Backbone:
């Protein structure tokens, strides 16, 4: 006998970004599933799924943003709860993949934490993962379960071609897209190609974590509006130094577009005092403090379409850019 829940889609939200979860659910005409998330006195997470999920197709929306360790553990516990409640399929939707920067052994005797997190998610019982703008593409290969990787480019491109942005820039022909390091060239090139503008590359060396020394600007930025494109902004040190280097080379103005606004510590205050005129980010991570310089674009529609496609067993390749 076929279960009445066999084709039922249920979206659950972790505590990391409930506003995004609600927006995604609204996009696809669903409500957030009933899950009680509490803490023991010692800080342990406790999860209770109140909805019947037997035979259901469940999606857990949980960016593993700061506090990263807490949100990773919460995700694992929710997955385990759904698996033990006999959900037909459990998909971890991770708009931001914490530990993504620890994707290789850059020096002796260090872990590959991005792989460890992948192992933990797989071991917890997840059937697949939906991620967005991973820091390194090879993380897809860290999983032994299917992983669908979305790119935020369509959301950024829609904004860059909007009347609001054109009014800000005024002369669209003077745009250039800047890759802040060699690793970001592919991402920046894709946007430059779609906009039909030039690509500039910044040669950068990182002497220690969260510090970056800009070495050289490769390409012409003189009298141009330079858009720095990156996957995330954490302490904002890299962005500010790149913006200063571009200004030194004659850029008229600088704008930054980063998918994930981690914005640790006093990053927002540093951006407000910097040469960066506007910082465009997605809502993959909940913004704790607003700023006139920060523009937040929603990825709810993009993720909602991907979830619907996965549920209906349709290809999501048309969402790639």
Residues:
């Amino acid at each position: 006998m076929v279960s009445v829940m066999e084709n039922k889609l249920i979206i659950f939200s972790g505590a990391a970004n409930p506003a995004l979860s609600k927006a995604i659910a609204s996009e696809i005409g669903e409500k957030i599933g009933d899950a009680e998330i509490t803490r023991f006195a010692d800080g342990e997470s406790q999860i209770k799924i109140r909805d019947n999920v037997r035979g259901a197709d469940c999606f857990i929306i949980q960016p593993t943003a700061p506090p990263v360790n807490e949100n990773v553990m919460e995700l694992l516990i929710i997955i385990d709860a759904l698996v033990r409640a006999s959900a037909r399929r459990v998909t971890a939707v991770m708009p931001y993949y914490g530990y993504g920067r620890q994707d290789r052994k850059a020096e002796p005797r260090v872990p590959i934490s991005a792989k460890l997190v992948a192992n933990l998610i797989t071991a917890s019982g997840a059937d697949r993962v939906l991620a967005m703008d991973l820091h390194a593409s090879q993380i897809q290969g860290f999983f032994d379960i299917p992983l669908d990787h979305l790119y935020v480019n369509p959301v950024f491109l829609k904004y860059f071609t909007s009347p609001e942005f054109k009014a800000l820039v005024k002369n669209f022909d003077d745009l250039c897209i800047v890759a802040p390091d060699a690793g970001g060239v592919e991402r920046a090139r894709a946007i430059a190609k779609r906009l039909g503008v030039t690509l500039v590359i910044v040669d950068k060396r990182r002497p220690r974590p969260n510090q970056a020394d800009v070495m050289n600007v490769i390409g012409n930025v003189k009298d141009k509006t330079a858009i720095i494109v990156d996957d995330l902004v954490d302490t904002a040190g890299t962005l500010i130094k790149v913006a200063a280097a571009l200004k030194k080379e004659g850029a008229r103005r600088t704008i930054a577009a980063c998918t994930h606004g981690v914005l640790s510590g006093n990053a927002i205050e540093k951006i407000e005092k910097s040469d960066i005129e506007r910082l465009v980010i997605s809502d993959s991570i909940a913004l704790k403090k607003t700023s006139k310089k920060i523009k937040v674009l929603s990825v709810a529609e993009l993720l909602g379409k991907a979830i619907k496609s996965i549920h209906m067993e349709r290809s999501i390749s048309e969402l790639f850019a």
Observations:
- The CA atoms of residues 282 and 297 lie 5 Å apart.
- The chain has two domains: 9-151+301-319, 153-298.
